[in-house]
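Ticket #4471: structure output looks truncated?

Reporter: J.K.
Steps to reproduce: submitted the chain below (280 residues) through the standard prediction queue, then opened the result file.
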Amino acid sequence: MIDERQREENVERLVHSSSYRVAYKDVDFLDGPKLRPVRMELELLKPELTFEEQNIRSTIVVFGSTRIVEPGLAEREVEHARARLADTPGDPRRQRVVVRAERILAKSCYYELARQFGKLVSSQCQQGGQCDYVIVTGGGPGIMEAANRGAYDAQAKSIGLNIRLPREQQPNPFISPELCFQFHYFAIRKFHFLLRAKALVVFPGGFGTLDELFDALTLRQTGRMQDIPIIIFGREYWEQVIDFRHLADEGTIDDEHLDLFRYAETAEQAWEMIVRFHKH
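Returned output as attached by the reporter:
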């Protein structure tokens, strides 16, 4: 027999046990390896429901390097690198830091172009409460910040799909707060990039940008997504990074696959390509 005190103590232990928690409130349970499919479904569903609530009907995706910053900041980085080199002029590592900083400064024009593009598209397409062709980025700094900033300049909505990384990536301050998301799974994030996309606009970038570009090119090549224009800013940069023509010459892609993308050098040129593609 147990007395009343023991009864109450036992009940107290039971109601505070992990097994007694309501499943959807049990973070430890949801974080377990066997619950991965559920977590992926939640990451798919949360933005989807929000987009419906916010009447986001279509988007334009902007990709590009996190390291291409606005010209003023890029200039300060060059000055800092040169000052450090002046202390040890023969240091090859510091010499290379200067060269790399100068190359980023040379590409800082793309920050301004991404900002112009974001403002142009948003001012054209978000009028009278309509939410078409909403700018969506990866939500981070650099080119992503610039595109969100352009929409912000136009007092329009824009989306940021941030990703959890070992070095935490903070969302840039120009994303619409109600449209700022954080993802754990790259695959679900990519799905949301392209699900409503009416165009993909790619600025100079590194591994992440290449991954996102080739993901879209593959889906377009294989007919596994909607027809959209893929517009690449900076022909001189990209033709040094990837020799697309060589792929066709070697027979590993068809000649017509080179028509899956176009180059642009100005925001107006890129927007005109999108307008012509969708025959607006």
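Triage note (M.O.): checked the attachment and the full token line is present. Residues 118 and 172 are 14 Å apart (CA to CA).
Status: closed, working as intended.
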